[in-house]
User: What shape does this take?
Amino acid sequence: MTRNSGLALCLSYCIGLLFTGFFGLYNPHPSWQQWLIVIFGLLILFFIFSIIIKRLNYSHFNQSFWILLLIVALIGVIYLQLRILQPNLTDISHLISTNAKSQIITVTGKALSESKQTANQKIQFWLAPQQVTTSNLINQSVSGKLYVTLDSSEKLLIHSNQVIIIQGLLYLPKSSSNPNSFDFKTYLHRQGAFAGLKGLKLIELQEPPWGLWVLRQRIVNALQKGLGESYGSILGSIVIGRQAVDLPIEIREAFIKAGLAHVFAASGFQVALLLGIIIRLTRSLIPRKQLMIGILVLVFYVCLTGLQPSILRATLMGVAALISLILNRKTYSIGSLLLAGTILLLFNPLWIWDLGFQLSFLATFGLIVTLPILLRWFDWLPPTIATIITLPLAASIWTFPLLIYTFSSVVTYGILINIIMAPLITIISFGGMLSAAISLIYPVLGSAIAFFFYYPIHFLLQTVLFFNHLPGSSYAIGKLPLNLMLLIYLIMILVWLNSWFKRYWLLISLFILTLTIITVTYSRLTLEQITVLSGGSEPVIIIQNRGQIVLINGEKPETVKYTLVPFLIQQGINQINYVISINHNADWSILSKHISLKNQIQVSQNNSFSLDNFKISFATPNLVQLQFQDQTWLWILSNTISQKMLKQNLKFYPQALLYSSKTINKNWLNIIQPRAAIAFNYYPSQTIKNLFAEKQIQLFTTGKDDVIHWNIKQGFQTYITETD
Assistant: This one.
């Protein structure tokens, strides 16, 4: 088998895994229509590939080999479907039904991870439950995996394999209620967990057995003694990764916002640095001993970091590079990358949908294929400076489309801060590795060495905060369509492979940029839409009127963080023209930290607000009218409003009715006669559903439909995360 044919087989397997996206992520029971789409899609794709490869004269695979590649891709599809995690018969999630409320239980189990601090200042860890005691004192053996959170006034350290007895509320996770927000249910399912536990009381915490956590803790403790808790955690995260260190949430978010999240992801940079140190220290030894020492050190480092996909990929490639160097053989970098990825995906095919895994491979691919080109462009600079500039550029070029597609925004100064901080991060990383290695033997000396890096870490953190506070530190672009992202990557691959495309790379780059800008901005500037978000007891209403944005309600901190900001980013909104509060003085200070607010308006029963073809006004103290285009929506603020008052103030029949009570007066519907109704934050009873169906009124609720859109072209649409 030739090198090209081996790479083709690996690539076919990966393509097959990616095609499971047509099933919907983690769908264990795809329909026959979905299977048909996948099979025909693979047939068409491999047919196109065969034509392109033949035209480019890269290889001359015969027909039989193309059939083999197709079979390998289908095997990848089937293999991933077989590996999708599902709750077994004894899984703890079966203790609570879909429609039941959370219940208090006492769980005995073993910790599967070390504790971390959440954004809500809670302690979080994974637990393998073994025994459950319910409220009626029935003991039951269980299995599975639990996502556990616990309120604690003091910092609580929990380690792997530690036996824990904890009392709490067992619940089933929910999907995201708004576009672009965190999908908690999918996140748990990817981890093999189907239930969560809100810890109320920690009953027993046994002494943990010896494990690698002892070495991790030894390193972290030494670094924290030399630098203080925060700076010590930063250095520890740089050395062994954020998965192994409980990094303060505010520091973690600051680095993410600055585009430096990769600093805390143990990956290729740390492995390359470690390999350089090993080769330097063992240069006097025979090649066999060099190889053995190198592999042992890398394996130990991988175990120390917690076996994350990015570090496993880097280690496999590092071992290949070490073997090639010692044996004096040339390494085929792309082949090593693809082989490493295939090995990992054979071990766990579900990693194909892990964002960290995807970004790690794209960044490495960028360094392999794009870095040499960029270095030639910057050959007029000193080699060290040229490398510092081109490294983040090469990685960013290939990760940029995926990041936009995933997060709908860009870190404005991300590349600049990566270039500026690269030398400092290298120095800190080297010092951290030295300090960590010595801490394993003599912690006092490790702490002393760590102390010398106090000011470099301080400067790094202050630089991060400085860039984060600059105007426009992040820019919302809006949701990039999947087909556009795939087209961009296809064009980039053609530029890499084909000489004709290489000659016109600048024009092609301008084309990609223009296409992206037009796609993400055209709809925004032409969109005329009303959106009702799921935001607690009060509705959050957003009017998008040809680039003019009006927001009604949504000032509460939790609503801002988990509902409003993700939606605004997904829509590519960087400025709100008018924020309006109804009948109360709203504090918009939290929202203003995330997005520019031009005007703040309070509308009460004594006034109204108009903007072009939008108007909001009070008909009575409890009756608000929204007018947009030719639409009129009636918003009932209180269910105490009388029929007489409705008749007196209703001068026309509204297209939509908004209300928040769990019941609705039948006579209201007779008087108002709306075409549609939106209920806030509850699930209507079957009686209510029947009432609306009887009167032929469309009924939506933010408790079920999550997000309700209305626009001129499509009318009412919903964003539904899960169905009943």
Summary: The first strand starts at residue 103 and ends at 111. Residues 287 and 360 are 30 Å apart (CA to CA). The mean pLDDT is 83.
